[in-house]
From TrEMBL:
Annotated keywords: ATP-binding, Nucleotide-binding, Transport
Domain of life, per lineage: Bacteria
Alphabetized InterPro entries for the sequence: AAA+_ATPase, ABC_transporter-like_ATP-bd, ABC_transporter-like_CS, ABC_transpr_MalK-like, ABC_transpr_MalK/UgpC-like, Mo/tungstate-bd_C_term_dom, NA-bd_OB-fold, OB_MalK-like
Annotated organism of origin: Thalassospira indica
Protein name: Sn-glycerol-3-phosphate ABC transporter ATP-binding protein UgpC
CDD domains: ABC_MalK_N
PANTHER family xrefs: ABC TRANSPORTER ATP-BINDING PROTEIN (PTHR43875:SF14), MALTODEXTRIN IMPORT ATP-BINDING PROTEIN MSMX (PTHR43875)
One GO molecular-function entry: ATP binding
Domain ABC transporter: 4-234
Amino acid sequence: MNGVELRNVTKAYAGITVMENINLEIADGDFLVLLGPSGCGKSTLLNMIAGLEPVTGGAIDINGRDVTALEPDERDIAMVFQSYALYPTMSVRKNIGFGLKMAGMPKPEIEERVNEVAELLQITPLLDRKPSQLSGGQQQRVAIGRALVREPAVFLFDEPLSNLDAKLRADMRIELKRLHERLGRTIVYVTHDQIEAMTLATKVVVLDRGSIQQADTPENVYRRPANRFVASFVGAPTMNFVDGTLVRDGDQVFFDTGNGKLPLVDVPAEASDLVGRSMTLGARPEHLMFDDAGISARVVLAEPTGPDQYVRLAVAGAEMTARSGPEQAFKSGSDIGVVIDGARMSLFDVENGKALLHG
């Protein structure tokens, strides 16, 4: 296949296995994001694709070619690191073209490629400056340009925006997305920032403790998490979780926490098979709806964020967060009725955390 394929890839250090039997297909032209907390194995996986870390077992193919035993410079990849790693004494022009010069490419062709990449990244006026004369965002563009100019089959990005401030990160996310749409190249991108993952990716791979928890579109990872870990890691504020039992009272379905019954509306028919079973209910803040006919909830705290506000509620023996527009006023200590949108909730096995049902 074109793109990247990992087949039963295993990684061990000093006899201790940290990643085992990783199977992953990255289609040609995908923008795949490896997402997870620190220590989950995402950078290790990227480094194995790059050839910077040897695999202990399994195989890696790039564009249909087994590259498992090949050196990094033989894999037709280019990598952008968290550190810009620019040569301080060289101009932007020379930094971008250095790899081509070392490969023996003729000077006129190097100049042509550098100019094309500089125009694409909108850094043409900076070509004769030194890295010390550039902002962080400009330096990152140069680092990306150095990778682009080689025209590899696959681009690898290892947390490239971590050193930028919030506004620059947002600006660079837009630039990277536009760049991918223009070039259509395969990108594998490592981050612990879920906003980067959700906004950039065509496919997200969520990792935890060296194993893939879910590999899917950003929408499905958010709306249909494979397990409780994915549901808790993706989304800010995090998904609300409460243990209890699904019960039915006539035509109405509730989630009984033992300290109250949360009313559910628009519950899918498949939920009937789960009535009476102990489980974990997962509901994102936007899945809690204010309704005078719902269960009474006590307002603990309201957090305005501008376009939204997040309201912390004490309800049915648990604390849950709801999302509201800015126009509604909430007073700490007041009571308000709440129902849960059963059409968008998730239910998880209380023992292993696997998803049982998505609304």
